[in-house]
Amino acid sequence: MQWPANDTLLSVVTIDTANHGALTPAKAVGTQAMAVDLAASPFTGAYDLDDDSTPSMLFKNIIIFLGILIPWLTVIFAEAGQHATCKLVGSIQGTLTLEERDGDLLVEGTLTGVALGKHGIHAHEYGKTSNNCLDAGGHYNPDNVDHGGPLDAIRHVGDWGNLDATESPYQLSFTDNVSKLSGPKSIVGRSVVIHEGVDDLGRGDNAASKLNGNSGARLACCIVTPA
């Protein structure tokens, strides 16, 4: 394998010294850059990477290092993108935070103005909060299946069931293993809606049960936005 001559190799590494030297691009506290100009280098020429001479070993080590670093950085940047927020508008106030953890979606937030009891909460198709949240459309349902509960095998991606407000302000916290912040089941750019009534989880005896769980009017909604 030959390394091309008269080329420039640039490697930029960001180091988070506060995190015990771990490479953390999102929280960098220092940056170091190394540039090797082969045209001006004493190593100028075409190098055989099967050779054990010092110049060739240098490039071997750089290639090995980049082969390890690039996939690692890809994972880090991917993980850094798996966060979102959703600021409610309507009769219920609060900001939801959404985070993917080990394949599950964690949804948390402090809600004020919510009446005590159970309220249907779902991810809806469109990222719109206008017209008293009606423009958010129906539940996000890319698989075109019946409405169900969050633990059902057959359910909408957006079927999160009910929140159960036992006090006000109410600390919302739950996980869902179907909806995501990336991929074909991503709810980023879509909306979250909190309803007035209880979601019957598709167990009702009418057509609306299989569509929206008879959850009733829409009290508040928000648009899921990458953090």
Automatic annotation (TrEMBL):
Signal peptide per UniProt? none
Where does the sequence pass through the membrane?
58-78
Cofactor(s) annotated in UniProt: Cu cation; Zn(2+)
Instruction: Provide the GO MF annotations for this entry.
Output: copper ion binding; superoxide dismutase activity
Q: What is its EC number?
A: 1.15.1.1
Q: Which UniProt keywords apply?
A: Copper, Membrane, Metal-binding, Oxidoreductase, Transmembrane, Transmembrane helix, Zinc
Name the family. Answer: Belongs to the Cu-Zn superoxide dismutase family.
Q: What does this protein do?
A: Destroys radicals which are normally produced within the cells and which are toxic to biological systems.
What PANTHER family does its record include?
Answer: SUPEROXIDE DISMUTASE CU-ZN -RELATED
Protein name (Swiss-Prot/TrEMBL): Superoxide dismutase [Cu-Zn]
Q: What is the lineage of its organism?
A: Eukaryota, Fungi, Fungi incertae sedis, Mucoromycota, Mortierellomycotina
